[in-house]
Amino acid sequence: MKHNCFTWNTNMSLFRDTYDVIVVGAGHAGSEAAAAAANMGSKTLLITMNLQNIAQMSCNPAMGGIAKGQIVREIDALGGYSGIVSDTSAIQFKMLNKSKGPAMWSPRVQSDRMRFAEDWRMLLEQTPNLDFYQEMVSGILLEGNRVVGVKTSLGIEIKSKTVVLTNGTFLNGLIHIGEKNFGGGRAGEKAATGITEQLVQLGFDSGRMKTGTPPRVDGRSLDYSKMIDQPGDDNPEKFSYLDITKPLTRQRSCHMTYTSPEVHDLLREGFDRSPMFNGRIKSLGPRYCPSIEDKINRFADKDRHQLFVEPEGWNTVEVYVNGFSTSLPEDVQFKALSSVPGFENVKFFRPGYAIEYDYFPPTQLQHTLETKLVSGLYFAGQINGTTGYEEAASQGLMAGINASLKVQEKDPFMLNRSEAYIGVLIDDLITKGTEEPYRMFTSRAEYRTLLRQDNADFRLTPKGYEIGLASEKRLRRMEEKKEMSSAFVQFFKDTSVKPEDINPVLEAKDSAPMKQSDKMFKIFARPNITIDDMRQISEVSKYIEEYNLDSEVIEQTEIQVKYSGYIEKEKNNADKLTRLENIKIPKNFDYSQLKSMSFEAREKLNKIQPVTISQASRISGVSPADISVLLVYMGR
C-alpha cells in the first residue's frame, strides 16, 4: 500500500549551509544586532531560548532617562529600531532635566511592557534576511582562532561566518530570594550553560555580576489618593526622528510615594536572611540602582526613600514598584511594602529577586566589540558588564553592524567620544573596563554639549546611511531639518527689530530694554528670552507660518542661537582630541621595550593594546608622562 507522505532526508540540514551572522539571545542587544545585520544585507539567524520573550523588559517598563534617552535617539538616528518601538508602545512621555541646559535634556517613556515586546517581534519578523530559531546555544564552533558557528543543547551545529553573543543575565544565572536560590536567567526561565566554560578554556577572563528587580503588585489593591500624581509632559514629544511614529495624545500617570522609618525597621528584620548580607551573593550590583536593603544600610541617616509606582501598560493592572528592588525573603518584602502609604492592602503578583550571572571583562574586546582572542566573535550587552536596556541595545546595534561589515569585507564602523554617547560607552568599556555593572550618565561624556538628544540625527544619520543601515528617506528628512533650522538661524542674524516692537517683551521678562534697532539674534541669545517671546514679533511668527516649521526645527534653531558659543568651544576641544585619535599605534605593539615608561603603564598598555594615542591616554594608570614617552618613540 502506497502512503502519500514525505520522506525526510537525514542528510538535510535544518538551516541554510552558512549564515553570515548568528545572534545568540533576543533581548535588547540581540534584537538590535539581528535587525542591523539583516537590514545591511547579511543572512542572519536569531537564536533564543524562548521566542515568546523577544525584547522582554526584564526590569522596569520604561525606555530612556538621563543619558539613556540620548542613546535611544542615537540608535534611531543610525537606523536602529529601539526609538520606533519606544514610541509605538509608550504610555507616557517626559523630557527630563528641562530646567537645565539642552545638553542635559533626556527623553524618557513609560512603556506598555506587552506591546513593547510584541512591536519588537513584529518589526523583526518583517525584516528581510532574518531567520529565527528557538533553542539554547551551548557553545561556539571554531576553526583555529576563528568562529565558524554555534552548537545547540540538542547537538545541532549551525554554521556562520560571525557570531554575536548577547546572553544578558542568562549565563549560569542564579536567582536569589531570601535564603532560597535557584538557577535561572529571569523569573520563570532557565539559565544558559556551556558558553562560559568553553570561553574560559579558550583563555577568556570571566567574572560575576549581580542585578535585581522589585516586586510586581496588583494596582487594584493600591490607594493612589495617598500618593503624588506624576503625569507626563503637557506637550509630549517622541523618540524617533521618522514621521512613522506620532507623539502621544493621551497618557497614563505614574505615582510617587515614600518609605518611612517603620518600613526601614521592618526591612532590617530580614537582614540576617538577606543573601546580600549573609554572604550568599558575592558579586557586585549596580551602584546607581541599589536594592532597598542596600539603600537603608548605606544611607542610615535618611528616614525615607522615594518609590515610583509605574503601570505596566495601558490595560493591565500589574504595577512595577520602582525603587524597591530587593532580594529579601518574600514575607519581609510583603510586610515592609504593606507599611508604605498607599500599599496598606497590597497584593503581590510576584516578589522581587536578585540574580547573579557571568560576564566577561570588556577590555578583552576591540572597539568594534569583536573579541581579541577569537576572530568573528562579538559580545554585546550585559555579557560586557553593562546594565540597562539602552546600553545593551546600543552595543547590539554596533556589534550587528560590525559583524555584517566583516562578512562584507568592509572597513569596521566605530564612533569616537565626540561623536556619540555610544562612542563614550564603548570606549569606557574597552579602555577602562568595569568591575560593577556599568551605567551611562551625562557626566561620563566630556563633550555632552555636542552630544545632545536633539541633534543625534545630524551627528549620526549620514554615517548610518553610508554603511547601508539608515534609509535614504531618513537621510533626506534629516537634511531638510538641518537646512530649515540653519535658514531660521540665519533669519535671526539678518533681521533687525525695532525697540518699540521688542521692548514690551523685554520689560515683561525683566530684561534690559533696547535703545536702538538691533539684530534679532542678539536679543534671542539672551538667557531668559525664549522662542515663545520671539514669536510675539510679527516677522518671526510670519516666518514660522510661511515655512511651516515644526517643533524639531524650532527647538534646534533656539539651541543653535542660545548656545552657539558653547558649541563652538566644545567643537574646538573635540578637534584637538581628534588629532590624537588620528595617531595610530601599531597592532600588538610591545610596550615592554619602553623602559622609561612606568611599569604600571607598560603592563596596562600591553593588556589593553589601545589603537590610538588618545585611547592610550584614557587608560587608568597611564600618566601624561607615559604618553609623552610613547609620542617621542613614535616620532611625534
Oligomer: single chain
What class, by secondary structure content?
Answer: alpha+beta
Question: In total, how many beta strands?
Answer: 22
The whole-number mean of residue pLDDT values reads 94
Could you tell me the radius of gyration in angstroms? 27 Å
Proportion in helices: 25-40%
Taking the alpha carbons of the first and last residues, their distance comes to 86 Å
Walk me through what this model shows.
This protein has about 625 residues and is an alpha+beta fold. Strands 1, 2, 6, 7, 8, 9 and 20 form a seven-stranded mixed β-sheet that branches. Strands 14-15-16-17-13-18 form a six-stranded antiparallel β-sheet, with no helix packed on it. A hairpin with a 6-residue loop joins strand 16 (about 305-310) and strand 17. Helix 1 runs parallel beside helix 9, helix 3 (about 80-90) packs across helix 4 (about 115-125) and helix 6 (about 260-270) runs antiparallel to helix 8. The longest helix is centred in the last third of the chain and has 23 residues, at about 470-495. The protein is globular, with a radius of gyration of 27 Å.
